[in-house]
Amino acid sequence: MGRWTYKAGDRPLHLRVSSVGDFLNRESVVVRLIVAATDRQIRWVETTPVAELTATLARRQGLVLIAGQMGAGKTTTLHYLAGQVLQNQMILTIEDPVEIVQSEYLQLQVNRDAEMDYATLLRLALRHHPDVMIIGEIRDAETAHIVVEAALSGHLILSTVHAMSIAGIWYRLRAFGIPAAILRQVLIGLGYQTMVHDTHGPMADLQVAQGDELVTLLQEVRDEEAAVAVENAS
Fold first, then answer.
1. Phi-psi region of 68 (alpha: psi -120 to 50; beta: other; left: phi over 0)
2. Contact of 213 with 71, CB cutoff 8 Å
3. Which pTM value belongs to this model?
4. Neighbouring residues of 204: CB distance < 8 A, sequence distance ≥ 6
């Protein structure tokens, strides 16, 4: 896996490359073209959810998570949201690899050969005292716990996680061992994004839960968890 930058006319394209060979020694290569959020205006199916999540970031502390399928543009959306409201802030990103180059951000890249995984870089980042952290993805329990601890300490954290719905984000974090009471403290905004297409090209469809809607959702999933626990105990 790797990345490089290709210049198309006067605009740079960031290419993310993954290759693998099969048992017949045939090589398969996938190249993803990443256009930075600042390079073009993202087309949204609806702009209201984007505005709601943008307003949530103004709180400057807590945890905002976006789920969705691979290729749905989750990382691009995080960078876009940060760029709307977090000017003049120290923004630190941790990605694997860095997909969107932002010269005004401090960007760290996972390097497992150098024993620099998400968890290690997160610990380093916390010592650097950034105003905001963008974490490319919460992939394991260790990373999830460090991200939650950072949010509890007053940082604003933006990240992505694999889940199949907004409510699924809660269950994913619970599967990582995060206590329900802690999640209710740190979660300030959740989103689920898909990519749809019309005659003009791709559009991002972002559904969000924040404010009172998020409070209601978190209560519903906690009640469902409690009901399942009672059922399993009987």
1. left
2. no
3. 0.84
4. 42, 43, 44, 45, 72, 73, 76, 77, 193, 194, 195
Separation of alpha carbons 30 and 61, rounded Å: 37
pLDDT (tens digit, 9 = 90+) per residue, 137-164? 999 999 999 999 999 989 999 999 999 9
Q: Is 157 helix (H, G, I), strand (E, B) or coil?
A: strand
Class of domain 41-233: alpha beta
Q: Cβ(204)–Cβ(47) under 8 Å?
A: no
Q: Which of 105, 124, 96, 101 is nearest to 37 (CA)?
A: 101
* Class of residue 24 by CB neighbours under 10 A (exposed 0-12, middle 13-18, buried 19+): exposed
What is the domain partition of the chain in residue ranges? 1-34, 41-233
Question: Where do the H-state alpha helices sit in 73-140?
Answer: 74-85, 118-127
How far apart, in whole angstroms, are the C-alpha atoms of residue 87 and residue 91? 9
Residue 79 phi/psi, 5-degree rounding, is -65, -40
Structure token digits, residue 132? 């905001």
* Identity of the amino acid at 49: P
For 159-206, how does the pLDDT look when each residue is reduced to its tens digit (9 = 90+)? 999 999 999 999 999 999 999 999 999 999 999 999 999 888 889 999
Q: CA-to-CA distance for 224 and 214, rounded, in angstroms?
A: 15
Helices (H), 100-211: 118-127, 141-152, 166-175, 180-186
